[in-house]
């Protein structure tokens, strides 16, 4: 058990709803700040991400033009961590018109609800922080949901201890990440726990859909006890006492700790003339705090399959 002094805050929905310590007011003039001034402005935000609730929302930039907002968003992100360019520096989250249930594409490329999850189903890609910049919101749906991983872990430890232990076993995940080799060999190697103990408390890596499809693809579908454990987890992730629901407005910049905060997006309907557009940013720590057990790290000279790779 990680000592309480080293654990992130296990917040509940009311803690975010009734406070603004995680909300940072910005002015358009921030876009003209020199690098040192911008880094200084970001320090309270970074502290909240690293030592507080793991959530930081920047508001007040709705008056900036799209190009300036993108640049400022990227600069703030670079103050927080190192860019993970797996999907490019700024990844457009918008509806492609396709379905992830028909073709293996990220759910972020659809208008469907994502379900409460953390980003990245690939073992070796595990961004510490995720950013989301709201460029255009949908007229209907598309709301944001956040939940504390530690609060969920602690609740399950009290209410479903056996299921929590099962979630610490390794599960295979399907692969949709660019550059992934999603043949059977790749899926068999892509296995890690849902919950694992890190040096700063429990961490979560979870999107149920890709676990279900990954297990099915290798011929080992989830059993009744697995489904029971995932049902208990989903219920906790969606507990209204734990999950904070809110809406992003154009110009808002949201940053979350992808190890300690799970997130979701409502299904939405677009305005065809101005479709919903978010810009996602993945950020890594200079030195990762932990790596989930079960699969060894990749080493120089490791063979890379030459078939089934996504691009």
Strand-helix topology:
Layout: H1 13-17, E1 23-25, H2 35-51, E2 55-59, H3 66-80, E3 82-83, E4 91-93, E5 129-136, E6 140-141, E7 144-148, H4 149-159, H5 161-166, E8 170-172, H6 184-189, E9 191-193, E10 195-198, E11 201-204, H7 208-217, H8 224-237, E12 244-246, E13 253-257, E14 261-265, E15 268-269, E16 277-284
Parallel strand pairs: 1-2
Antiparallel strand pairs: 2-13, 3-16, 4-16, 5-13, 5-16, 6-15, 7-12, 7-14, 8-9, 10-11
Helix pairs in contact: 2-3, 4-8
Describe the structure.
This protein is of the alpha+beta class. The chain has one domain (8-265): 4-Layer Sandwich (Double-stranded beta-helix). Helix content is 27%, strand content 21%. The chain contains 8 helices and 16 strands. The termini are far apart. The relative contact order is 0.23. The model is unreliable at 1-7 and 295-311 (pLDDT under 50).
The secondary-structure class comes to: alpha+beta
**Rough outline:** globular
Number of strands: 16
Question: What share of the residues does DSSP label as strand, in percent?
Answer: 15-25%
So, the CATH homologous superfamily? Clavaminate synthase-like
Poorly predicted sequence stretches spanning 5 or more consecutive residues: 1-7, 295-311
What's the number of helices? 8
Number of domains: 1
Portion of residues within helices: 25-40%
CATH architecture: 4-Layer Sandwich
Distance between the termini: 40 Å
- Return the CATH class: Alpha Beta
The CATH topology label is Double-stranded beta-helix
Overall mean pLDDT stands at 88
SSE string: HEHEHEEEEEHHEHEEEHHEEEEE
- Radius of gyration, Cα only, in angstroms? 19 Å
Main β-sheet, in a few words? 7 strands, mixed
């Amino acid at each position: 058990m990680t000592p309480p002094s080293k654990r992130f805050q296990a917040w509940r929905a009311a803690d975010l709803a009734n406070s603004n310590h995680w909300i940072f007011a910005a002015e358009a003039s921030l876009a003209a700040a020199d690098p040192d001034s911008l880094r200084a402005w970001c320090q309270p935000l970074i502290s909240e991400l690293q030592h507080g609730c793991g959530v930081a929302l920047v508001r007040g930039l709705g008056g900036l033009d799209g190009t300036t907002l993108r640049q400022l968003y990227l600069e703030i992100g670079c103050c927080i961590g190192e860019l993970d360019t797996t999907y490019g520096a700024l990844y457009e989250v918008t509806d492609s018109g396709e379905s992830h249930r028909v073709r293996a594409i990220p759910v972020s490329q659809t208008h469907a609800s994502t379900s409460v999850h953390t980003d990245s189903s690939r073992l070796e890609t595990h961004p510490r922080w995720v950013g989301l910049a709201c460029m255009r919101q949908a007229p209907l749906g598309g709301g944001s949901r956040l939940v504390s991983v530690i609060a969920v872990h602690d609740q399950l430890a009290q209410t479903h201890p056996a299921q929590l232990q099962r979630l610490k076993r390794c599960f295979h995940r399907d692969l949709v990440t660019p550059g992934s080799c999603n043949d059977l060999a790749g899926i068999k190697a892509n296995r890690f726990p849902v919950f694992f103990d890190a040096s700063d408390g429990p961490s979560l890596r979870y999107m149920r859909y890709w676990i279900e499809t990954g297990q099915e693809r290798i011929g080992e579908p989830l059993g009744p006890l697995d489904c029971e454990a995932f049902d208990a987890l989903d219920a906790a992730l969606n507990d209204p006492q734990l999950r904070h629901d809110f809406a992003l407005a154009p110009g808002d910049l949201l940053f979350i700790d992808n190890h300690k905060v799970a997130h979701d997006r409502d299904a939405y309907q677009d305005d065809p003339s101005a479709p919903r557009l978010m810009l996602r940013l993945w950020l890594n720590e200079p030195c990762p705090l932990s790596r989930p057990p079960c699969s060894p790290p990749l080493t120089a000279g490791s063979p890379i399959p030459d078939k089934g790779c996504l691009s």
